[in-house]
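During the reporting period the student researcher (J.K.) took over the structure-prediction task from the postdoctoral fellow and processed the backlog of single-chain submissions. One of the processed entries is reproduced below for the supervisory committee.
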Amino acid sequence: MDFLSLRTAAMLSAVVTLSGCSYVGNLRMPSMPSMPSWISAPKAAPAPAVAPAALQATERTETWQGIYRQNAETGRFTECRTGAEMPVAQSGDSALLESAYLASRSAPGAPLWVEVQGRWVQRARTDMPPSANAKELVLLVERFVSMSSQTSCAAW
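J.K. obtained the following C-alpha cells:
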C-alpha cells in the first residue's frame, strides 16, 4: 500500500470508531452507482402554456425566447411557450445568430437558449420539390438579441 492509501484507511477507521461502530473489518470504499439519482431521474418538462398550433404566420415582429441548435446548414428554434420547433429562415439576422451560436456552443448540435425579435413566415418546404407546393412555418430572425448557456426553457 502506498502512503495515500494508508492515510485514507486510517482516516476511515477513525471515522468509523468515532461514529460508535465497534467492528471495522476490511475497509473498502463502497461502489458508486454509474450515475447519481439526481442526474439520472429526468425532470418532467412543464406543459406548454399555448398549443403549438397557436403559432401562425404574421407580419408583426415580436420577441421570442427559445432553444436554438444547428445541425449542418440548418438552424432550428424551439419556442419556449409552446414547445413548437421550427426551422430558422436563412435571411435577416440569422447569420449573426448562427455566428454567436458557433462561437458559444459546447459541441456540434448542442442546444442554447436565445432571445430574438422576429416573426413567423410561410415558405416553400426545402425538403420537397417546388411542384409539391408544400409550405412550412419558419422563424424569420429580424434581430438577434441575446444568447445564454442555458440548454432548456425551464428557467424562462
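The committee noted the following: The CA atoms of residues 18 and 104 lie 50 Å apart.
J.K. will present the remaining backlog at the next meeting.
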